[in-house]
Amino acid sequence: MKNHLDLIILRLLKSKPRWGYEVNLEIRDRFKVYLSAGTLYPLLHSMEEKGYLQAVWEAEGGRGRKVYRITPRGEEFLTAGARAAEEFLRRIQYEAEIGPFQQKHA
Amino acid sequence: MSTYIRKFWKFIKRNETARGLLLVGIVILGALAVWGGVRLALSTEYPVLVVSSGSMCPPTNCVLPIGSLIVIRGQDPSTIVAAPPPSGSIIVFRPYVCEPDYLVVHRVINEVKDSNGYSFVTKGDNNGGSDSWDARCGTALTMISSSQVVGVYQGMVPVPYLGSAILGIRSFMYDDTTGQPRPEGILVIVILIVALFAFEVIEPSKKPKPEASTSSSNVQPIPIQGHISSVEEFPNPGGA
Question: Which listed residue, of A95, B81, B85, B214, carries a Cα 20 to 30 Å from B197's Cα?
Fold first, then answer.
């Protein structure tokens, strides 16, 4: 699951813009994985640098927080990533189907 | 006691592997001693750090560009200055006490002193608002207590590209999206270790050859007047 963390984050932000900790809580609820600050925030920064995300500072009761939204470039990356993942699933499905022939050896 | 030292010294002089190991040990101990000394002198656990994000680098007035190698020092909280840039102290702190490895470097823009001591409001010079820290360790915070402060920014290590190189090595060693070591990184470390041992194995076989040739051809130091003092080896009494 962690290998596709960037895609998961992009998918979550495609449904609606969120701030970092919201992303954290969503991932915890859906995937039962808790991301450390040291994993999540540098990743959000690097995705922002790559132009997949855009961060906007939102003031709330005098303190600020960064709200992330997906960019068109991020959407492109998400679509390409999703296609690659589907392709992978199709392949392992195919491997599973032709599996019994290989078992003849045993 | 001194006989043990003499014996040990003789052993070290004769045994090339032992000499190598001793040298490696001295280098490692020396490095640890220097690191410990710097930590003690600057009274902080992390005296030197690399800046990994641009939050302290506004385009017009960049203070800490990404890849800066910074030196910090543990200071009494009362000496920390709370003010807008450029006068407020820049501090390194742990925003999340339950994740002590996660460090942030931001400027102190406000402070509060109460019965619990000092607390600080921090902000990245390049950020749109002051910091707030999420509830991953219990409750969300908008202030940093003095116990979370690791050190106060003193200055930069003026070695260009070193910080960036460290960041580059880190991103080569660790996967950016998972924080796990990358196979390429592990491979490089394994290759380095193997290379070290390979040298250790190859080297001894090279060295004995010249020694063997000198003893077999029975070449002995010829005492030349005025140069005797420079010859320290005893002529082999029995020959080869």
Answer: B214
Q: Which residue has the tokens 């010249």?
A: B210
| Residue range A2-105, CATH number | 1.10.10.10
Mutation target vs B (from A9, A19, A45, A63; most B CBs, 10 A cutoff): A63
ipTM of the complex in this document:
0.76
CA dist., res. B102 & res. B93, Å (int): 9
List chain A residues with CB under 8 Å of B94.
none
Residues A43 and A27: beta-carbon distance below 8 Å: no
Query: Confidence class of residue B230 from pLDDT cuts 50, 70 and 90?
Result: very low
How confident is the model over B69-90, as pLDDT tens digits?
999 999 999 999 999 999 999 9
Q: Considering Cα of B200, then B204, then B206, then B210, what sign does the dihedral take?
A: positive
Q: What is the pLDDT of residues B166-221, one digit of tens each?
A: 989 988 888 877 777 889 899 999 999 898 888 767 766 555 555 544 444 455 55
- Sequence-separated (6 or more) residues with CB below 8 Å from residue B144: B91, B93, B95, B119, B120, B121, B122, B131
Smallest CA–CA separation between B129 and chain A, in Å?
Answer: 4
User: Residue A39: its chain B contacts at CB < 8 A?
Assistant: 178-179
pTM: 0.75
Contact B101 A38 (CB under 8 A): yes
| Residue B19: its H or E element | helix B16-41
